[in-house]
Amino acid sequence: MTLNEVPKLKHTNSDNFFLLAGPCAIESEEMAIRIAEKIMSITDNLHIPFIFKGSFKKANRSRIDSFTGIGDEKALKILRKVSETFDIPTVTDIHEISDAEMAAEYVDVLQIPAFLVRQTDLVVAAAQTGKIVNLKKGQFMSPESMKHAVQKVKDSGSDKAWITDRGTMFGYQDMIVDFRGIPTMREYAPTILDVTHSLQQPNQTAGVTGGRPDMIETIARAGIVNHVDGLFIETHFDPANAKSDGANMLHLDNLEKLLTNLVAIRKVVQSL
């Protein structure tokens, strides 16, 4: 599929990478609107196609007392309001078969979390909604194995599949991006690099995932040089107090400079 097929997506003819960006989880309407407005302003100025990201719930948590959401329908309605307010597409992740049909009523892209991308029934349910399905590569999977995840979408009657690389588990507490996998996965579907989750440091003794946000630009630059079609970046105006994944998120104040640099690099790469 082409970017022109994504509802409400702007700047599709700019020859830029596209961007999935927003907070890890929807915490409130005010925070979602504030973050979306800032990203929208930046991406409009830089002519970057932008899809707002926010999880309506977080099912994969290290501890039982970790934040999981503000309520499914409440969060999904906020995602719809963001879409209507700024006339932009939205993406959220789903965890159960029943989530697919429910979330499809509110968002444009359904995301399959990395830990669940081999769950056939979940992938099929997402594909059958007719929405774009963003398949996050499992931390335990090879790039080549994502061919089969994409094929599940196709076998369900849809050609609307993307792949997102979010790193591969290296030992117990670190993620590594193997850029050799980018051209491989691009043979199967448009490929996105999840910059911020690739810098997670999971399985900390405290039960709260750590991260290396200082390396965000390093990973993002490498992705652009290696021709990723899109970037996935979680961002927040107060990462230290974000309710989920704050340790690896980009501060919203740093997004404009990062994207400006990446657009410049993209122009150089495209000219080679």
UniProtKB/TrEMBL annotation:
Locations listed in the record: Cytoplasm
EC class (word): transferase
A Pfam family the protein falls into: DAHP_synth_1
Occurrences of domain DAHP synthetase I/KDSA (ranges): 13-267
Keywords: Cytoplasm, Transferase
Signal peptide: none
Gene Ontology annotations of biological process type: lipopolysaccharide biosynthetic process
Pathway: Bacterial outer membrane biogenesis; lipopolysaccharide biosynthesis; Carbohydrate biosynthesis; 3-deoxy-D-manno-octulosonate biosynthesis; 3-deoxy-D-manno-octulosonate from D-ribulose 5-phosphate: step 2/3
One GO CC annotation: cytoplasm
Molecular function as annotated in GO: 3-deoxy-8-phosphooctulonate synthase activity
EC number: 2.5.1.55
Keyword match Transferase: yes
Coiled coil stretches, renumbered: none
Catalytic activity: D-arabinose 5-phosphate + phosphoenolpyruvate + H2O = 3-deoxy-alpha-D-manno-2-octulosonate-8-phosphate + phosphate
Matches recorded under InterPro entries: Aldolase_TIM, DAHP1/KDSA, KDO8P_synthase
Keyword Transferase attributed: yes
Family of the protein in this entry: Belongs to the KdsA family.
PANTHER family recorded: PHOSPHO-2-DEHYDRO-3-DEOXYHEPTONATE ALDOLASE
Name of the protein in question: 3-deoxy-8-phosphooctulonate synthase
